[in-house]
Design brief:
The complex is a heterodimer of chains A (about 200) and B (about 325). With about 200 residues, chain A is α+β, with helices and mostly antiparallel strands. Chain A is built from four helices and five strands. Chain A is about 20% helix and about 15% strand. In chain A, strands 2-3-5 form a three-stranded antiparallel β-sheet. A two-stranded antiparallel ribbon of chain A has the order 1-4. Chain B is an all-alpha fold. Chain B has one domain. Classes of the chains: A alpha+beta (about 200), B mainly alpha (about 325). The interface between A and B is medium-sized, with 13 and 13 residues.
């Protein structure tokens, strides 16, 4: 047998320790959470589902191109805005036709949210959106929009008013939280810029 | 109250069968729950309140499964094995007294009968190992055989010590002769018997015949459906029988306050505690290796049992 074999006394002590540990655990309450019956209390910034703030999206395609498994589908077209002043120049802006995230492919890396320069994508903590048919995991623009109401306040862009909220956090003409290409959490950056208001944002081509 | 003999026999058989079918389930459910809570879990919670019907659900599941006999199996041996493993424990349960009056089959040498019959149960495991036509089953079956040969001896010696002390081979006689200081006098024998009983049942820490990390599931590898369930039932019925036997031999069976009326309850309570101890060992301890297992049997348990036998002999001569 081995030289460093534990002696009989040591072995017995080890056996006793095993019994004592299990007995102590028996006396303590279990750690189990009864999930389907009891909702888990998740941190508010849990990575559950990706929400789209459509009016912030400029169809820049950065998210779709950075997505490691190409699960974001974007279609858009250009529209021309007639000049509002005499002798002005006509402007073009992108109109988002389609913004789909295929959650059957998504691996929840969050790169799209990190990379979005316009604070159009957010994490929401909802996770229970399993489907019987895999095709229903393709969340289209309206559905991605509905997740916005689940996005925690702390991550919302400054000046963003939830639909139905009485007053926005700041006055309506204030910055809407479009920031420098964000380094940390979306909307957490303080230096909001003056890039127009949420509903009629324009991008110079 | 005098019943006709036939009615009495049928009634007793039904009661024993009912106990045989419910007590193992109670043990199994206790194991689920105790093991879960010792690991910080809740265990089964969905089937009935606190998962009380979990084993019933398991039984229904097993009944629905296909009963597969491997092509290379020795058909009759393979199919007969679960019955051979299960039925001896039923016979043993009938011969173990719950109190002086509560015994289904009061045989004069019931200790001998119970020990002999529980050893037959092992043939079920051996047959399963041999008949499955599977090398893992065969290795497991051989391990079971080797284990049984080794541990039968200390077990019988420990039981013989109690029989000597009581001057009787009848379980009823042994329990009646018992008095509290036997707890100290027969302590080495009790420890030997308990360890050997756990080994006989092939429970952790002596479950190397079934060691899932080495031989898949040993002799039971090829079994499915109801036959597999019978093996599991045999394991838990074995715990019931061994706990009751330990209670009657070393803990005085039904002796306790108001044992005239509460006798069977005392037996049940003591046996339940022993059974929980056997379950506890599985939860707390790791499996011993095959060579360690043999070493323990021959170099520790056997000498200890012989010492106990000598001690009992001296005691009987001096005080008896």
């Amino acid at each position: 047998m081995n030289e460093d074999k534990p002696g009989a006394l040591q072995a017995l002590r080890g056996l006793g320790k095993g019994l004592a540990t299990t007995a102590k655990t028996l006396a303590r309450p279990a750690h189990t959470r009864q999930y389907p019956h009891v909702e888990p209390d998740l941190p508010e910034r849990s990575h559950g589902v990706i929400a789209l703030l459509e009016e912030n999206c400029t169809s820049c395609m950065l998210c779709a191109r950075e997505c490691p498994d190409w699960c974001i589908y974007i279609d858009s077209h250009k529209e021309t805005l007639e000049p509002t002043t005499e002798g002005g120049r006509a402007r073009q802006h992108n109109v988002l036709d389609r913004f789909d995230i295929d959650f059957s492919l998504c691996m929840y890396c969050g790169i799209c949210i990190e990379v979005c320069p316009f604070d159009a994508l957010f994490w929401a903590p909802d996770f229970a959106y399993a489907e019987g048919d895999i095709r229903n995991l393709l969340h289209e623009k309206p559905k991605l929009g509905t997740w916005m109401e689940r996005v925690p306040d702390a991550t919302l862009p400054e000046g963003y008013a939830r639909p139905g909220a009485e007053t926005p956090a700041q006055d309506a003409d204030g910055p809407v939280g479009v920031t420098e290409p964000s380094v940390g959490e979306a909307g957490s950056s303080a230096e909001g810029t003056d890039a127009g208001d949420t509903s009629s944002r324009e991008v110079e081509e | 109250m005098d019943l006709p003999l036939a009615v009495e026999i049928i009634l007793k058989a039904v009661v024993v069968l009912a106990a045989f079918l419910t007590l193992p389930l109670a043990i199994g459910q206790t194991e689920h729950k105790v093991m879960a809570h010792m690991q910080g879990r809740l265990g089964p919670m969905e089937a009935g309140p606190h998962g009380i019907a979990q084993l019933v659900a398991d039984g229904i599941k097993f009944v629905q499964k296909e009963d597969v006999t491997p092509a290379s199996a020795d058909r009759w041996v393979f199919k007969l094995a679960p019955a051979v493993a299960l039925i001896p424990y039923l016979v043993a349960l009938a011969a173990i007294p719950w109190s002086a009056a509560w015994v289904a089959a009061d045989v004069p040498a019931s200790l001998l009968l119970v020990l002999a019959v529980t050893s037959v149960g092992v043939f079920g495991t051996l047959m399963a190992g041999w008949g499955s036509g599977n090398k893992y089953s065969l290795v497991g079956g051989m391990r079971a055989g080797a284990q049984l040969v080794s541990y039968e001896l200390p077990m019988v010696l420990a039981a013989a010590s109690v029989a000597m002390a009581a001057g009787s081979l009848s379980l009823t006689g042994i329990a009646q002769a018992w008095s509290w200081w036997w707890l100290i006098w027969q302590l080495p024998g009790a420890l030997v018997f308990l360890v050997a009983a756990v080994a006989e049942l092939q429970r952790v820490p002596f479950d190397s015949p079934l060691a899932d990390s080495e031989v898949v599931f040993g002799p039971y590898t090829e079994y499915t459906g109801l036959r597999f369930a019978f093996f599991l039932l045999a394991e838990y019925a074995g715990i019931v029988v061994m706990s009751l036997l330990f209670t009657v031999l070393f803990l005085g069976g039904w002796s306790g306050p108001w044992s005239d009326t509460l006798g069977p309850l005392w037996t049940l309570l003591k046996a339940a505690l022993v059974a929980i101890l056997i379950l506890w060992l599985r939860i707390a301890w790791p499996r011993v290796r095959e060579d360690q297992l043999q070493r323990l049997a021959w170099l520790v348990l056997l000498p200890l049992a012989l010492v106990q036998l000598a001690l009992t002999g001296v005691g009987v001569v001096v005080w008896g």
